[in-house]
Design goal:
Strand content: 15-25%
Shape: globular
Number of domains: 2
Radius of gyration: 20 Å
Largest sheet: 6 strands, parallel
Number of helices: 12
CATH architecture of the largest domain: 3-Layer(aba) Sandwich
Number of strands: 12
Order of helices and strands: EHEHEEHHEHEHEHEEHEHEEHHH
Structural class: alpha/beta
CATH class of the largest domain: Alpha Beta
CATH topology of the largest domain: Rossmann fold
Distance between the termini: 13 Å
Length: about 325
């Protein structure tokens, strides 16, 4: 059966959760066809865009019944495409994001307004023949509230042969222009601001001027703060190098689908300060570092002060929880 990996984009070897997942899927299914929907269509609305994607899927199926679509939930399914064999990956907690902006009067309210009603409710009716996979128990719980029965949970993974301790901190800091002082690292997208709680990070950077902060993103970022250095659209190898420049990793997000950035930092051996989000919504191990309430500035500051004073072994947690790529690959091959 011919497999088609359908996603917004297929940028490889860069910071980004969805991009990394589909890069890994392509390693599992090297003969699969990669289809990037944002390169296929343009539309005046999100709904119209999804209708075009759905029609593309149906047309492909009419031409060749021997296909299997592997896609993220939000890239298609606003019309009935249940006749097409497909595996749908649920990895984005849109309902919780909507609730978050309502509860906090967040600036991104308009960003997701109507999005759930436009596609998620209709997607419930259009996944009759789809194997539905969630990336974490949090996502499974989120979907069940909407009546979506998840068939299988396959958490995201990290390639521990790429993300690993290098024990070359002095050499790497010199290479990347990182000063010889305490260094924190953050990986994510600054927009939408509330989804990653970016203002909290900015407050911490302003508060801890004695700490140098590495920020890695796939989006351009215009931030003028003397104690930061921004890296945009860099490779996984370079992300790992920068992890190895740092003393701790911090994630300020209130919500994550799974949390690939966290897992990559853990595999690199970095003590982590993370919120109760994604895979870590219902799992914790003190060897990871310190878990904090995303809303509490005090908990963030206490964690920063103490993270390098406690004993951690986050890489071993990745191995023990079987969050490595080879285990993930076997799970997908068994489907």
């Amino acid at each position: 059966m011919k497999k088609i990996l359908l996603n917004w984009t297929h940028r490889k070897d860069c910071a980004g959760g969805a991009e990394t997942v589909y890069e890994y899927l392509n390693k599992v299914f090297p003969n699969a066809e990669l289809v990037s929907t944002k390169n296929l269509f343009g539309a005046s609305s999100f709904t119209d865009f999804l209708k075009q994607v759905d029609q593309y899927i149906i047309n492909r199926y009419k031409k060749d019944k021997n296909i299997l679509i592997i896609r993220d939930a939000e890239v298609a399914g606003i019309t009935d495409i249940s006749m097409v064999p497909q595996i749908t990956i649920f990895g984005n907690p849109y309902e919780s994001i909507n609730n978050l902006v309502k509860e906090t009067n967040g600036v991104e309210t308009n960003l997701y307004q109507g999005l759930e009603d436009d596609w998620l409710t209709k997607t419930l009716k259009n996944t009759k023949s789809t194997l539905k996979i969630a990336t974490s128990n949090f996502i499974k719980n989120e979907m069940q509230k909407k009546g979506v029965i998840i068939d299988k949970i396959i958490p995201n993974c990290v390639d521990i042969n790429i993300f690993k301790p290098l024990n070359k901190k002095t050499e790497l800091r010199k290479k990347y222009g990182i000063p010889n002082k305490r260094v924190g690292i953050w990986v994510g997208a600054p927009h939408p601001e509330l989804v990653k709680n970016f203002q909290m990070l900015l407050n911490l950077i302003s508060c801890y001027t004695d700490i140098f902060w590495i920020l890695i993103t796939k989006n351009e970022m215009n931030l003028k703060m003397d104690n930061t250095k921004i890296f945009c659209n860099i490779s996984h190898k370079e992300i790992n190098n920068l992890h190895n420049c740092a003393d701790f990793f911090i994630l300020t997000s209130p919500i994550e689908g799974c949390g690939i950035a966290m897992m990559e930092a853990m595999a690199s051996g970095l003590p982590c300060i993370i919120s109760k989000a994604g895979y870590f919504w219902d799992f914790w191990d003190d060897r990871i570092g310190i878990q904090i309430d995303w809303k509490s500035f005090e908990e963030h500051t206490n964690a920063i002060q103490n993270i390098n004073k406690i004993k951690t072994n986050p890489r071993q947690v990745i191995i023990d929880q079987k969050l490595d790529f080879e285990t993930w690959k076997r799970k997908w091959e068994e489907i």
